[in-house]
């Protein structure tokens, strides 16, 4: 697979979001299946894996996903880029200081991931009680100490990115971005392109909607399935958004691809600094997503697709970017 840059990090141009092995999409797979799926992705060319300390089943506490990812990738650790994320609790930051809190959470993640460094360490969400500049300075110390190679922000807008970047250069911003959620195109992606920052879209297939496999008759699992609360996936909005699916099916037929692959190929063609991390707990779907790297849109095809998308109304805007 071709590679892209997240500032100084070289990663496969499509990465893998690993959350589904622990949380968010109903019943989780057996650990051994999850490990084999992650390794299959590596054999398929993926070198970029995303997790977070909070990705865990409801009753199993912190770090479940990190442990699975750590076990799976330990044999090839030096050949992959590991990204994980922390929440910054106000009480800990006030009691121990921002840097000490960052380091405490980082050390826990490193233990669970079976590694002595993290390639890309994100602040999962902004904490309004802690200035982002202080977080940036703490991340800078972790970089100087060799504990992380780079740092990033998630769920943020340009103002926060700019404040953080001025203190310690940001390598990646992880925001929601797909054909159904294009707010990032207004300012975040242009700012990041101008300043050499990678953009790592989560939910790039819109929680599976852009695969074309979700219909108004689809029933999601009742326990721990985020799709039950995604506005675009209400029964009414699934029906209303079918014109977008038809656009993707048309291009998929022309390109001998799948709708999901077309949606990923579109963003890869559009922005050189974008590295999507589609997530799935199904191995065949994971490999299908990675194969989107083999789908090439011509300039005319891309322009035609852009026009079709611009004329297509989206129902059930999700939008969870924090602007400050």
Globular, elongated, flat, extended or rod-shaped: what is the shape? globular
Output the strand order for the largest sheet.
3-4-5-6-7-8-9
- Please estimate the helix content: 25-40%
Order of helices and strands: EEEHEHEHHEHEHEHEHHHHH
For the largest beta-sheet, the strand count, sense and barrel status come to: 7 strands, parallel
Distance from N terminus to C terminus (CA atoms, Å) equals 36 Å
CATH fold call:
TIM Barrel
How many domains would you count in the coordinates? 1
Estimate the mean pLDDT confidence: 96
**Measured on Cα atoms, how large is the radius of gyration?**
19 Å
What CATH architecture label applies?
Alpha-Beta Barrel
User: What is the count of helical runs?
Assistant: 12
**CATH superfamily grouping:** NADP-dependent oxidoreductase domain
CATH class: Alpha Beta
Strand content: 5-15%
Q: How many E strands?
A: 9
Going by helix content, strand content and strand pairing, the class is alpha/beta
- Poorly predicted regions are none
InterPro entries: AKR, Aldo-Keto_reductase, NAD(P)_OxRdtase_dom_sf, NADP_OxRdtase_dom
GO cellular component, one term: cytoplasm
Pfam families: Aldo_ket_red
Protein name: Aldo/keto reductase
